[in-house]
Write a structure and sequence with these properties.
Blueprint: E1 2-6, H1 22-42, E2 47-51, H2 61-72, E3 78-82, E4 104-107, E5 113-117, E6 122-126, E7 150-156, H3 167-172, E8 177-181, E9 187-190, E10 194-196, E11 212-218, E12 225-232, E13 238-245, H4 251-265, E14 270-279, H5 288-293, E15 296-301, E16 304-305, H6 309-315, H7 320-328, H8 338-358
Parallel strand pairs: 1-2, 2-3, 3-4, 6-7, 7-8, 8-10, 13-14, 14-15, 14-16
Antiparallel strand pairs: 1-11, 5-6, 9-10, 11-12
Helix pairs in contact: 6-7, 7-8
Length: 359
């Protein structure tokens, strides 16, 4: 039995909504999910498991129609879906009255239910969220029968407010495969058996690393996982990029260095820049032109002015500059916090500039 395991698609979300590329990221979510559907068709997948939060919010009828059309293009694939906290089943939910394609099975109940597919001898268990939070370990009550079926569990959660479950509990479950959602990083809790698929597309700045889907094969007789592969599919990634400068680095050179790294790693990606090292006190870095050309979501300048405080103190032993150095500089500068360092550097810079202005 061949399957694809996906979770936390968040269809309808606009990541980085305050950025110029926000709408493009929303389209990436949709385009990547369409590629998943194409992969189901091209690879003759028996089951598509969607372990919660297919939608980012309560879906409207038009959203359901759009997804139902896609599912209808893979009629030989059994699509099994549960709701997470974002697309939870509410009393007025459009999910309750929607007429899905025959191959789609959305398990709507908040207690464990199952659906059996005779053609592949597979029984899939799951339940949906009906509330934003779920602090009960619902899976404790699921006990598949010894009936010779392949047994699959779909579940969503794993933190304090969303079905808190220890890894040992997951490992002890009598299922051939446990398809999990809610944690956005792909994670194998129990090797080749209890898996968080993660999000197909990263949704927030902290979601670095590869994102995609799991593709697996279960032997029809032994019920063992014969093959399980993580397949990266994301159209873009959040990439932390650190650039080190020296006292010889100019603003123009820094822009060139950053441009070269971004071009090498991919202009479709979204970058979190961190500038480190020492720079000439007379040089200030302006990366606004780069932020117009590339997807740069944050810039953290941790570089420090290359002041010679000993020489400065010799020049200004009895004025405000000397007093400021005596007051803030520690015997070992490495013992200073980042806030203390910045107070010292910015203060000295302001005093020097003020002195130059008064000449």
């Amino acid at each position: 039995m061949r399957f694809i395991h996906v979770a936390d698609v968040h269809w309808g979300m606009v990541p980085d909504a305050d950025q110029p590329w926000g709408r493009d990221r929303a389209n990436d979510i949709r385009a990547t999910f369409r590629r998943i559907i194409e992969r189901c068709r091209e690879s003759n997948v028996d089951c598509l498991f969607i372990a919660g939060d297919l939608f980012h919010r309560q879906p409207m009828n038009k959203d359901l129609q759009e997804l139902n059309y896609l599912f209808g293009t893979i009629p030989s694939t059994h699509v099994v879906i549960i709701s997470g906290e974002h697309d939870r089943v509410e009393t007025n939910s459009a999910l309750l009255s929607f007429n899905w394609s025959p191959n789609v099975h959305w398990i709507l109940e908040d207690t464990p239910q199952s659906v059996y597919f005779d053609d592949i001898n597979t029984e899939v268990y799951g339940f949906s969220y009906h509330t934003r939070e779920l602090r009960e370990t619902v899976i404790d009550g699921i006990h598949p029968a010894e009936d010779g079926h392949i047994h699959i569990l779909l579940a969503h959660g794993g933190d304090r407010d969303h079905m808190p479950v220890e890894t040992a509990t997951w490992a002890a479950l009598p299922f051939d495969y446990v398809a999990l959602g809610h944690i956005h990083k792909p994670t194998e809790l129990v090797e080749r058996r209890v898996i968080y698929a993660g999000t197909p597309e990263p949704l927030e700045q902290g979601e670095t690393g590869p994102h995609g889907i799991y593709v697996g094969d279960i032997h029809p007789i032994t019920h063992r996982i014969q093959k399980l592969e993580f397949v990266p599919l994301a159209a873009a990634s959040y990439v932390p990029l650190q650039i080190s400068v020296t006292e010889r680095t100019s603003n123009e050179e820094l822009q060139r260095l950053i441009s070269a790294e971004i071009e090498k790693r991919g202009t479709q990606n979204i970058y979190r820049l961190r500038i480190t090292g020492k720079h000439d006190p007379e040089v200030s870095f302006d990366l606004a032109p780069l932020r117009e050309r590339y997807r740069i979501v944050t810039v953290e300048d941790m570089s420090e002015p290359q002041y010679d405080f000993v020489a400065l103190y010799r020049e200004h032993p009895s004025d405000m500059i000397g007093f400021y150095i005596r007051k803030l500089l520690r015997e070992n500068p490495d013992d200073m916090s980042e806030i203390e360092k910045k107070a010292l550097y910015y203060g000295i810079h302001a005093l020097l500039q003020s002195q130059k202005g008064g000449l």
